[in-house]
Amino acid sequence: MFVADGGKSGLVNIGNTCFFNAILQCLSHIRPLGEVFGNEAKLSSLLNTHSKALGSHGLIAQAYGRLLRDLWQPARMTPVRPADFKRAISRRNRRFMGYDQQDAPEFLEFLLDELHEDVNRVGEKPYAADRAWANFHRRDDSPVVDLFQGQLRSRVCCPTCSKVSVIFDPFRSLALPLPRPRTPCTGQEASAAVGLHTAYELLAKPEVLSHDNQWYCNRCKEHRQAIKELAVWRLPPILVVHFKRFAHGASRLRVTSATTQITYPERLHLDDASGQGRDYRLRGVVCHRGTLYYGHYVAYARHAVTGDWYYYDDDTCRRVSDDSYLGHRGAYLLFYEEDCSVQN
Ligand SMILES: [Zn+2]
């Protein structure tokens, strides 16, 4: 691509695009960069087009490669029109969609970041998850961790520049959100039951961060109401599920779903975001009644030897002969143990 009579064409200004024309021209003369992106065969061998990749799935890298080849056409007499390239970056970042003058250093940072992610060798990132997991285990390693520790992936996306940041956090109980109860005009709460699987899916629903909980985007250099997306990346052998019946409001703790009925199965199959499934069997249920401050807790547990279910209410204990442990209205925490006897 790099020839003596190439690289001498201008770039058409297609509406206040001088900020990126200037950047592109400088970059186009940086040989090691051009040797990667301008070489079609080499680029396609490096492209990170995996569906979970962080970049543009090759969109920007390829558009940039085409632009470079245009700029380096031997003895080209006419300027290059970067419309195709501009369309590509506009699709990734709405800020570049219009014809407003933009900040060149910001654009450079954006472009390099996009190019980097498109050829990122790490992909997204079972590797990063494993590294976070190994780091965690370097500091915390015990039988409790072996049994209860799972891993959450949290993905935050900037609504302005599309910058994505991914972090992995350990958990020992999985807090699941509940849909907000609908209150009909009668003043009584709607009593539609919510299934455990529904709450598990609700956890993964993208959420726009509230105005007072903004995320600092290090590309925009500003706080943004980013879009946050959680996923369970690794399920533990003992899964403790905690339903968020109580939520922190702006000023104080409030009850949001205290009486929402939750249904949950005795035998549970869940898949995590890395594609692994586990089969569980219910071992215990903690139930809550009343308000947060004046409530009462009772428990059901499956006997560790006999396998019978028992009901525990402070100083009383009785055997349960039906399946009432599956239907308590105040179920708050569930204890599931992996059932290795289930064959896939
Ligand atoms: Zn941003």
What does this entry show, briefly?
With 344 residues, this protein is of the alpha+beta class. The chain folds into two domains: 18-118, no CATH class; 126-338, Alpha-Beta Complex (Cathepsin B, Chain A).
Description:
With 344 residues, the chain is of the alpha+beta class. The protein folds into two domains: 18-118, no CATH class; 126-338, Cysteine proteinases (Cathepsin B, Chain A), CATH 3.90.70.10. It is 26% helix and 27% strand. It is built from nine helices and 18 strands. Strands 3, 9, 13, 14, 15, 16, 17 and 18 form an eight-stranded mixed beta sheet that branches. The chain has a four-stranded antiparallel beta sheet with strand order 2-1-8-5. The two termini are 53 Å apart. Mean pLDDT is 82; it is low at 249-253. The chain binds zinc ion. One of its GO terms (biological process) is proteolysis.
Listing every helix as H and every strand as E from the N terminus to the C terminus, the arrangement reads HHHHHHHHEEEEHEEEEEEEEEEEEEE
Query: Distance N terminus to C terminus?
Result: 53 Å
Find the structural class using helix and strand composition.
alpha+beta
Count every helix, treating DSSP H or I runs of 4 or more residues as helices.
9
Any guess at the CATH architecture of the largest domain?
Answer: Alpha-Beta Complex
> How many beta-strand elements?
18
- Helical fraction equals 25-40%
Assign the CATH class of the largest domain. Answer: Alpha Beta
Average predicted local confidence, pLDDT: 82
The share of residues in extended strands comes to 25-35%
Q: For this structure, what is the CATH homologous superfamily of the largest domain?
A: Cysteine proteinases
CATH topology of the largest domain: Cathepsin B, Chain A
Unreliable stretches (pLDDT < 50, length at least 5) are 249-253
Bound molecules: zinc ion
For the largest beta-sheet, the strand count, sense and barrel status come to: 8 strands, mixed
Radius of gyration: 27 Å
Shape: elongated
